[in-house]
Each structure stands twice: as structure tokens, then as C-alpha cells.
Amino acid sequence: MIDLLATAERPRMTVAPEVEDVLQSVPGWLASVGRKGKDPAADRLSPRVYGDDDEAADEFDRLMTPELDAGRRADRDRYEDVIARAVGDGTVLDEEEAFAVLRVLDEARLVIAARLGIDSDEWEPSPLVDASPELHLYHLLGWVQDALIDAAEH
Predict the structure, then answer these.
(1) Interior CA angle at 25 toward 24 and 28, to 5°?
(2) How far apart are the first and last CA of the chain?
(3) In this structure, how many other beta carbons lie within 10 angstroms of the beta carbon of residue 66?
(4) Residue pLDDT, tens place only, 65-88
(5) Interatomic CA distance for residues 8 and 79, integer angstroms
(6) Regarding predicted confidence, which is higher, 127 or 100?
(7) How many Cα atoms within 13 Å fall on the side-chain side of residue 35?
(8) What is the pLDDT at residue 128?
(9) Residues 2/147, Cβ–Cβ less than 8 Å
(10) What DSSP letter does each residue of the chain carry, written as one string?
(11) Rounded CA separation 98/102 (Å)
(12) Residue 133 and residue 130: Cα distance in Å, rounded?
């Protein structure tokens, strides 16, 4: 399915064609996150930094949101490239690629968690949520994160 190995102190990622579509869909899915106050995922990705000072919080958002959004888009582009190269024979990731993939996976897991209502390690899914494809994707992306970290550390 997905194989992550350490080779010459750099992780090598191989993605089976059966999961390529799932992994390639993540950036487009992240681009669909709505606006703060309307989508719990947007609120989770961009928390209010000055909770008690609306003017400072608005100024921070005005100054930083474009830069944060540009960084997220760049990470998603790099992620898409890595996944495309990883299908079949696999690809070796440099440090920047590994970090970009980890950031996109983390962003996706935050979005899923917010929309499913996961707010702590003690969260227990309801039977309806437990069967949802989103929860399965949440676990798959977490496994990929863990495997990539492990491969990068060795």
C-alpha cells in the first residue's frame, strides 16, 4: 500500500496505485476548507491568536494570513509532486519534501478532526463516526505521518 524506508539517511516513499487517488485528493480537499466562523476546519487551522484583543487579532490575520496561505499552497504543490513520483518505483525525499509532506498530512488530520469533533486524545467516536470514511482517512494519514517520521529518523 504505502512503504516508507530509510535509505542513505533519507526516506524513500513508495505508494501503491490503489491508494494514489486517496493521497492525491488531499490537497484539493484541503483547498475546500471554508471561512473562519463557518467551517470548524478553518477555525482549527487558523485559531485566533489574541483571544482577548479583537483589534490585535484582526491585524495579525491581515498581516499573516496571506503568508500562511502561500506556505500551505507551496506545501501542497510539493506534496502532490512527491506522491506522483512515489507511485510505482518510489522516490527518495529530501528534507524539504519530507517536511512539506508532513505539514500537509498534519493539516489534513486537523481538518478531519475538527469536522468530526475530535478535540482530545480521549475522544471516542460514535458508531456513526466510527464507520465514516473520514475517520479511516484520519487514521491512514496518521500512519503515513508516523512511518515517514520513523524513516526520516533512521
Answers:
(1) 115
(2) 21
(3) 10
(4) 899 999 999 999 999 999 999 998
(5) 21
(6) 100
(7) 2
(8) 66
(9) yes
(10) -EEEEEETTEEEEEE-HHHHHHHHHHHHHHHT---TTT-HHHHHHS--S-TT-HHHHHHHHHHHHHHHHHHHHHHHHHHHHHHHHHBSS-EE--HHHHHHHHHHHHHHHHHHHHHHT--STT----HHHHT-HHHHHHHHHHHHHHHHHHHHH-
(11) 6
(12) 9
Given pLDDT bands bounded at 50, 70 and 90, which one contains residue 122?
confident
- Calculate the average pLDDT of the chain: 88
Rounded Cα distance between 47 and 50, Å, is 9
pLDDT digits (tens, 9 = 90+) for 32-42: 899 888 999 99
Q: What is the mean pLDDT of residues 127-134?
A: 76
Cell 488530520 belongs to residue: 109
Q: Please state the length of the chain.
A: 154
CB atoms within 10 A of CB 76: 20
